[in-house]
Design goal:
This protein has about 90 residues and is an alpha+beta fold. It has one domain. The chain is built from 3 helices and 5 strands, in the order ααββαβββ. The protein has a 5-stranded mixed sheet, covered by helices on one side. A hairpin with an 8-residue loop joins β3 and β4. The longest helix is centred in the N-terminal third of the chain and has 9 residues. The model has no long low-confidence stretch (mean pLDDT about 90).
Length: about 90
């Protein structure tokens, strides 16, 4: 399962999303700035994620470039892993 591949800093977000019924849409690897990415089918529950005590190496990002999927998620700089979902 994707959870075993995702870095430990982002695993709590993944587990939260699975617990609330969200599903993995796709996984990707091989990007320069993000070596492994999990894309969820539905929007992430950002309000709940913000309550986690995530390390400073985890930052929220948002893609607004229409050439790619419009997503919002979190990137763990230490491992270069990401978890995201569709933007509102």
């Amino acid at each position: 399962m994707e959870n075993t591949l995702l870095c430990p800093t982002l695993r709590p977000i993944f587990e939260l999303e699975i617990a609330r019924g969200n599903e993995v849409e796709s996984t990707e690897s091989g990007w320069t700035n993000c070596v492994f990415s999990v894309v969820m089918k539905n929007r992430l529950c950002h309000d709940s994620v913000e309550k986690f005590k995530l390390p400073y190496s985890v930052r929220k990002w948002k893609n607004t470039d229409g050439h790619y999927a419009l997503e919002t998620g979190y990137l763990g700089d230490k491992y270069k892993h990401s978890i995201a979902g569709p933007t509102d």
